[in-house]
Design brief:
The chain is 26% helix and 36% strand. By secondary structure, it is α+β, with helices and mostly antiparallel strands. Strand 5 and strand 6 form a beta hairpin.
Length: 133
């Protein structure tokens, strides 16, 4: 079920709800890029350089997954949100040092993203699913 018109859901990062047969609901935040090349995933860490509003990777969201689509390829990566956030918290400084930020200039502000290679991000998320006791 798309939630695009629901402003409360949108503020929580919920773009879509998937209702399971057992009654549970999964919430998905959807991001897309209009490019064939899926070599990196842009993690938005600063939404607005003028207001210093944090990007979506820095925000607590009430979602279960991030769906990241490359539209021309018809390929979607589905990332578990908690592991993605855990990987970002652990590797943020290293990734920002290793991969040059990409600015997206808008009319009155600029958004910044870190382009993490897809294979690096997938490995970090896999590692983030392991908890050392």
């Amino acid at each position: 079920v798309p939630l695009r018109g629901d402003t409360v859901a949108q503020r929580q990062g919920k773009d879509r709800a998937i209702h399971l047969a057992n009654g549970d609901v999964l919430y998905i935040d959807e991001k897309s890029r209009d490019r064939h090349d899926d070599r990196d995933i842009l993690l938005e860490y600063l939404s607005n350089d003028r207001t210093r509003a944090p990007g979506w990777i820095e925000c607590d969201k009430s979602i279960d997954y991030l769906a990241y689509a490359f539209l021309p390829r018809k390929r979607v990566y589905l990332f578990p949100w908690l592991q993605l956030r855990r990987a970002w918290a652990h590797y943020r400084e290293q990734w920002q040092a290793d991969y040059r930020p990409i600015p997206a200039r808008n009319a009155t502000y600029t958004t910044y993203c870190t382009p993490v290679p897809t294979h690096v991000l997938r490995a970090a998320i896999s590692t983030a699913a392991i908890i050392q006791l």
